[in-house]
Amino acid sequence: MDRELKFLIEQDEGYNLEFKESVSSSIAKEICAFANANGGKILVGVSNDKKIKGVSDVNTAKSKIQDYARNMDPSFSVAMYMLDNVLVVDVPEGNKKPYSVNGRFYLRKGANSQQLNRDEIR
């Protein structure tokens, strides 16, 4: 196993790290939350119990993730790379905060991405 991947998986999900077993629309929320905070990494192909499931169709996964990021408001960009069979989505801290997905604003708080209410957005 790649050393960086081993190191990341040994960590617990937290303020800067999220595990996703597969690509789904919930990744948009995580990207938004990381962009509104200090950035972070999403490991696609890793379950919450730290088991490596891998990514079967890497090109489709990357394409969907780029679409989710591009459709944020304002549009956003992430970097992606493979470590063994796991897709790492590297989300930088946004420089045009706040970001939203489908009109909702999210922020990373501990190991969770929380939707912000009106007062928190201000």
How many strands?
7
Q: Biggest β-sheet, characterized?
A: 4 strands, mixed
The DSSP helix count reads 4
Helix content: 25-40%
Quote the distance from N terminus to C terminus. 44 Å
* Oligomeric state, counting identical vs distinct chains: single chain
Q: What is the global morphology?
A: globular
Query: What does the average pLDDT come to?
Result: 96
Topology:
Layout: H1 3-10, E1 17-20, H2 26-36, E2 40-44, H3 58-70, E3 79-83, E4 86-91, E5 100-101, E6 104-109, E7 112-115, H4 118-121
Parallel strand pairs: 1-2
Antiparallel strand pairs: 2-4, 3-4, 5-6, 6-7
Structure overview:
- By secondary structure, this protein is of the alpha+beta class.
- Helices cover 30% and strands 26% of the residues.
- It contains 4 helices and 7 strands, in the order H-E-H-E-H-E-E-E-E-E-H.
- The protein has helices at 3-10, 26-36, 58-70, 118-121; strands at residues 17-20, 40-44, 79-83, 86-91, 100-101, 104-109, 112-115.
- The strands form 2 sheets. A 4-stranded mixed beta sheet has the order 1-2-4-3, sandwiched between helices. Strands 5-6-7 form a 3-stranded antiparallel beta sheet.
- Strand 5 (100-101) and strand 6 (104-109) form a beta hairpin.
- The longest helix has 13 residues, at 58-70.
- It starts with a helix and ends with a helix.
